[in-house]
Design brief:
The complex is a heterotrimer of chains A (289), B (104) and C (287). Chain A has 289 residues and is an alpha/beta fold. In chain A, 34% of the residues lie in helices and 28% in strands. In chain A, α1 (14-27) packs across α9. Chain B is α/β, with parallel strands linked by helices and 104 residues long. Chain B has a single domain (2-102), classed as Nucleotidyltransferase, domain 5 (2-Layer Sandwich). A 5-stranded mixed sheet of chain B has the order 3-2-1-4-5, sandwiched between helices. The longest helix of chain B is centred in the middle third of the chain and has 10 residues, at 50-59. The radius of gyration of chain B is 12 Å and the shape is globular. The chains are: A alpha/beta (289), B alpha/beta (104), C alpha/beta (287). The interface between A and C is large, with 55 and 58 residues. The structure holds iron/sulfur cluster (2 copies). One iron/sulfur cluster binds at residues 65, 70-76, 94, 110-111, 113, 115-116 of chain A.
């Protein structure tokens, strides 16, 4: 079962939940994988003591223009929807602007003079890690300065699914845009982490809208309960959205998190809470699939 | 020599447009004939790459200088490649005032 | 003056601190560039809101009556956006990048490019001036262009209304939207918090920001949650020659203020946090 841990917006405790949940799945004896798909800022692996096994480079298509063969007809320039071909026939200038190119290959298909060759560029990587007990971790990482996070998310999840494991826990990208949807469509169950504040609720609503539009099953964890107000509870009840659990606000939890430590390893009440969460997620996820 | 000036509207009394890639018009001024032609910037609404596309656009007019409120760092290298000299004017001058400056 | 608040990763309390600055600026144009999850408007509910729709890009659709099932589009698509569902070729709008290659190549002219215009732009008045925010329709990618549109509107309004200061609540991450937010602003304030992941994010954020601008300030939020990491942040900023303008303690009052749709300045003007934010405001605006 693929379980995505997501939140409308960063900072609600998505990484906190993913990492502690993963530890709990392990200690309950499940075979589980932790996958960090927050490719712009992956950091859930900082909470574990890991050794890197390997990297898989993720590439994107790039055209190479051969100026010797080019007859400056301009068709490639016309085909490119992204202004990625800098073309000034008056000055016999043509070149690719790499940072604008989306790798769609339209220019190459357009060129009738064999002046464009196929090539590719590295946009990021999927890395495999292992801890001392041979648990596997995966991390997708976007190369700095690159913008195409989708292919990396797709490759990361693909690699994860090629490994054998009963549960794949995916720390998803924040927000409700493309990266979030790409992770969600590849998951069986989505855990939305929110906090009981007006900001949290507004972001949660957007995430719910998005998940409903792609017909996904999900439940909500309310993090830092005890601070904030009850609006979010009213909203969840009215829309019949299941609450998986509430994690109380505590400075202690925040401190462990800030030190890069897993609260479930230190606080017994949090350990129990996460065991309950794990069981509920497995049950909710199974009841629908 | 021709000079491209980014302009908010299409008359010599218009004020310089501070954006390069997404300016409304380019005023193409010819220092020899002393004539100014106004052309709409086709890249104003471009989703991406308005800057480079605008460099291409003015280069096709064979201008040697470009005047605007700012040039992004990606634009600068392209401008050098097509040998267009950049002049930054941040005050709200009219096209006419800028043309006068160019003639000095 | 145009100032942007950023945080690398979300959730560091950026919007709360940004809104406090907006309170202090009194007459200001508030801009929410966090178009994925805009929420400044929750604290500053606008009046007389004007709504406009925004075309965020294009998507391809296949007209089934014209499709001859040759499969060329599927073969050409670099984004795996074309699937065969129940024997029919269909385009997944989430994966479609809008490159139009299939549209241009289809031998049967069965493909059409349509505008995606579900994204919205809002402009209105609020108690401290005017507020501008955008909302991308779910699943749209924040390409940075939307941010340019929002910022251009802010600049126009600033001229039109004679309001000098623009304060921007920026997007998370350090990708394209981040770049579009900081390019051309006068000052950037990065809000961070003392955790290992926070420090790591801060470094990445500063690295990228430094490549295009000089005036960068840092605010450490909830500094007392981990004094050790707070010190590491301080050392790092010193090394990078970046000024820390405030260290704010963790305080439930920030959340209480938010629940009451107020900024911390409005909620408790004389509190310790408000005092520290006022000092930061002075440094940023007066230097
Ligand atoms: S691959 Fe696509 S985006 Fe890149 S230059 Fe060619 S047409 Fe433009
Ligand atoms: S389509 Fe081919 S020949 Fe024509 S301008 Fe482009 S590269 Fe040159």
């Amino acid at each position: 079962m693929n379980i995505a841990i997501a939140s409308g917006k960063g900072g609600t405790g998505k990484t906190f939940v993913s990492t502690n949940l993963f530890k709990t799945f392990q200690s309950l004896g499940h075979s589980a994988l932790l996958v960090d798909c927050d490719v712009e800022c992956p950091n859930s692996l900082l909470f574990f003591d890991l050794k890197k096994l390997s990297d898989t480079i993720v590439k994107e298509y790039r055209p190479i223009i051969d100026t010797n063969k080019c007859v400056y007809c301009g068709l490639c320039y016309e085909y490119c929807e992204y202004n990625a071909i800098f073309y000034v026939p008056e000055l016999k200038q043509i070149k690719l602007l790499d940072n604008l190119c989306h790798g769609c290959k339209a220019c190459t298909v357009a060129c009738k003079h064999g002046a464009i060759e196929n090539s590719s560029t590295e946009i990021g990587q999927v890395s495999f890690f292992v801890d001392s007990e041979k648990h596997i971790f995966l991390e997708g990482r976007l190369k700095e300065g690159k913008i195409a996070s989708i292919p990396i998310i797709k490759s990361t999840i693909k690699e994860a699914l090629s490994l054998s494991s009963d549960f794949v826990l995916i720390d998803s990208s924040p927000g409700t845009s493309c990266p979030f949807i790409q992770t969600a469509v590849r998951s069986d169950y989505i855990v939305l982490v929110t906090e009981p504040t007006p900001f949290g609720l507004s972001d949660l609503k957007q995430a719910v809208e998005t998940l409903d539009s792609i017909n996904k099953n999900y439940g909500v964890i309310i993090n830092r309960s005890g601070i904030g107000n009850i609006e979010v509870y009213d909203y969840l009840e009215k829309n019949k959205i299941p609450i998986i659990a509430e994690i109380p606000f505590s400075k202690e939890i925040a401190r462990y998190y800030s030190e890069g430590k897993l609260a479930v390893s230190y606080l017994s009440e949090i350990k129990e809470l996460f065991e309950e969460i794990s069981n509920k997620i497995i049950k909710n996820g199974n009841s629908i699939s | 020599m021709k000079v491209a000036i980014t302009s908010r509207e299409n008359s010599i009394d218009s004020i310089i447009d501070s954006r390069f890639g997404r300016c409304a018009y380019f005023a193409i001024y010819d220092t020899e004939t002393k004539e100014t032609e106004f052309v709409k910037n086709p890249n104003k609404e471009a989703n991406e790459g308005a800057g480079p596309a605008s460099v291409k656009f003015i280069a096709s007019y064979r201008v040697e200088k470009a005047v605007s409120g700012e040039f992004g760092f990606k634009i600068k290298s392209l401008m050098n490649e097509v040998n267009i000299q950049m002049i930054v004017i941040q005050e709200e001058k009219t096209i006419k005032e800028i043309v006068d400056l160019l003639n000095k | 003056m145009e100032i942007a608040f950023l945080s690398g990763k979300g959730g560091t309390g950026k919007s709360s601190i940004c809104s406090a600055f907006i309170s202090l600026a009194k007459n200001v144009i508030a801009v929410d560039c966090d178009v994925d999850a805009a929420n400044l408007y929750l604290i500053f509910p606008p009046e007389n809101t004007i709504e406009t729709s925004y075309i965020s890009g294009k998507n391809a659709i296949i007209h089934q009556d014209k499709c001859i099932e040759c499969g060329l589009c599927k073969e050409l698509c670099q984004f795996d956006a074309i699937n065969i569902i129940e024997g029919k070729f269909e385009i997944d709008p989430v994966s479609c990048d809008g490159c139009a290659l299939c549209f241009r190549q289809c031998p049967s002219e069965a493909i059409e490019m349509i505008d995606s215009d579900n994204s919205k732009l809002f402009f209105g008045d609020f108690r401290n001036g005017s507020i501008i925010y955008g909302r991308l329709s779910p699943g749209e990618e924040n390409s940075g262009k939307f941010i340019n549109v929002v910022r251009t509107l802010a600049k126009e309004k600033s001229k039109e209304l004679g309001i000098e200061n623009i304060i921007i609540d920026g997007p998370p991450g350090i990708g394209c939207p981040f770049m579009s937010t900081i390019t051309g602003v006068d000052k950037v304030i990065i809000v961070t918090e003392p955790s290992m992941s926070g420090l790591f994010d801060l470094k990445r954020t500063i690295d990228v920001a430094k490549s295009i601008m000089q005036e960068i300030y840092v605010i450490i939020n909830k500094y007392d949650l981990n004094l050790e990491v707070t010190n590491q942040i301080k050392e790092y900023c010193l090394e990078m020659n970046i000024k820390i303008v405030a260290c704010l303690p963790f305080d439930k009052e920030i959340v209480d203020a938010m629940i009451n749709s107020k900024t911390i300045i409005e909620y408790n003007y004389d509190s310790d946090i408000s005092k520290r934010i006022k000092e930061a405001y002075q440094i940023v605006f007066k230097s």
